């Protein structure tokens, strides 16, 4: 109970970002590096201009030192996101997106927006997508009941956002609900 | 809400009084009824806090009437529009309407308890969305606070939140704020 209130209920967005940083991304290195062992595994070798898959944290680090270009994942493109947004707004269920898309997209757009085509358009699409999905999780709240709730395809950041009050309200409903006894 | 021994909320909710009618004479306990009589006569009515009422009721020394916050008037109002009822007015400032209701429900017999449970659950569900919506709205406003005129209904709804809902409001607001901060921050410097 030594943790501050805000950390007790759920993990912070920054922690999620840290977890997402283990995700592998493609880069085009600008330097040569031998295969190197890290705690999470061995990555490399880097031989420009061959593409290479390394964790996001490493890509971020290299990018900030201007030693690589990050290749945006294929879902981080105007076409893909536009298609998902259309689907999101036209259908009642959540559309399928990479589980940690919000974190990865933010990190890449933060450090390597020059490597992404149409970064501004993508940013606004992501925002629209987020709002459309938020509206849906709000609807999920209406369907909340004391025992279960199913919102498939919800992504990590969204789960994290709704977790504190969904859990609390379900807890309250459990208390208020009374099993009609079979008599 | 829960009946945990260490739960402050439970203790506060137990502090609500319910109206009891004594069935038997109880000697030397007149001070409990607040009067100057030495004894409590049968058929005396006295408001008794819930924590004391358990033993009195279960020992069959008294009957109790369903307290007015769960009475027929409030029920009808809740049925008409859950969001327009000011729960905090029913149980006093910072009161726990749901917690109180839960305790009353636990004392009652099967059928009545189911009735109360339904009232509580419906009220909670009916109000939940508005609580969360407003919390997220306020989180989006940022540190400057409520700029622009807020509507009267929203304002009076907020004033009518009971303790349990207030907690939810705070949770939702805090969570939305955190996500917003993260989305808007560009912390290149951190890396």
Automatic annotation (TrEMBL), chain A:
Domain GINS subunit positions: 75-175
Which segments constitute the DNA replication complex GINS protein PSF2 N-terminal domain? 12-71
| Protein's cellular compartments | Nucleus
Domain of life of the organism encoding this protein: Eukaryota
Q: Which UniProt keywords apply?
A: Chromosome partition, DNA replication, Nucleus
Q: Which InterPro entries match?
A: GINS_A, GINS_bundle-like_dom_sf, GINS_Psf2, PSF2_N
Q: Which GO terms describe its cellular component?
A: GINS complex
One record GO biological process: double-strand break repair via break-induced replication
Residues of the signal peptide: none
Q: Which family does it belong to?
A: Belongs to the GINS2/PSF2 family.
Share what the entry says about its subunit structure, partners included. Answer: Component of the GINS complex.
The protein in question is named DNA replication complex GINS protein PSF2
What organism, scientifically named, is this protein from? Suillus placidus
Organism lineage string: Eukaryota, Fungi, Dikarya, Basidiomycota, Agaricomycotina
From TrEMBL, chain B:
Source organism's superkingdom?
A: Eukaryota
Q: What is its main location?
A: nucleus
User: CDD domains recorded for this chain?
Assistant: GINS_A_psf3, GINS_B_Psf3
Q: Which Pfam families match?
A: PSF3_N (PF22466), Sld5 (PF05916)
Q: Does the keyword Nucleus apply?
A: yes
Q: What is its quaternary makeup?
A: Component of the GINS complex.
Which protein are we looking at? Answer: DNA replication complex GINS protein PSF3
List the source organism.
Suillus placidus
């Amino acid at each position: 109970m030594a943790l501050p209130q805000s950390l007790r209920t759920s993990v912070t967005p920054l922690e999620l970002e840290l977890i997402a940083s283990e995700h592998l991304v493609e880069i085009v290195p600008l330097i040569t590096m031998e295969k190197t062992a890290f705690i999470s595994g061995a990555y490399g070798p880097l031989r420009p201009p061959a593409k290479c898959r390394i964790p996001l944290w490493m890509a971020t680090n290299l990018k900030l030192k201007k030693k690589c270009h990050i290749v945006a994942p294929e879902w981080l493109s105007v076409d893909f996101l536009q298609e998902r947004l259309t689907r999101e707004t036209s259908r009642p269920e959540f559309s399928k997106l990479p589980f940690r898309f919000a974190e990865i997209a933010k990190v890449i757009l933060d450090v390597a927006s020059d490597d992404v085509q149409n970064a501004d358009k993508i940013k606004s699409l992501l925002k629209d997508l987020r709002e459309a999905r938020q509206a849906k999780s709000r609807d999920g709240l209406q369907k909340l009941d004391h025992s279960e709730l199913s919102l498939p395809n919800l992504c990590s950041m969204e789960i994290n956002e709704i977790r504190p009050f969904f859990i609390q309200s379900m807890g309250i409903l459990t208390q208020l609900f009374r099993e009609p006894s079979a008599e | 809400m829960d009946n945990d021994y260490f739960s402050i909320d439970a203790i506060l909710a137990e502090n609500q009084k319910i109206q009891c009618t004594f069935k038997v004479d109880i000697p030397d306990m007149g001070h409990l009824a607040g009067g100057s009589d030495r004894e409590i006569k049968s058929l005396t009515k006295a408001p008794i806090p819930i924590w004391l009422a358990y033993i009195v009721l279960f020992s069959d020394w008294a009957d109790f009437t369903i307290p007015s916050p769960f009475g027929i008037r409030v029920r009808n109002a809740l049925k008409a529009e859950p969001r327009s009822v000011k729960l905090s007015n029913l149980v006093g400032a910072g009161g726990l309407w749901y917690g109180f209701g839960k305790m009353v429900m636990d004392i009652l017999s099967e059928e009545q308890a189911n009735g109360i449970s339904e009232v509580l659950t419906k009220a909670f569900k009916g109000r939940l969305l508005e609580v969360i919506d407003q919390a997220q709205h306020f989180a989006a406003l940022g540190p400057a606070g409520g700029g622009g005129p807020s509507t009267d209904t929203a304002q009076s709804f907020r004033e009518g939140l009971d303790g349990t809902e207030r907690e939810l409001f705070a949770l939702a607001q805090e969570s939305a704020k955190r996500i917003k901060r993260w989305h808007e921050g560009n912390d290149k410097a951190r890396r």
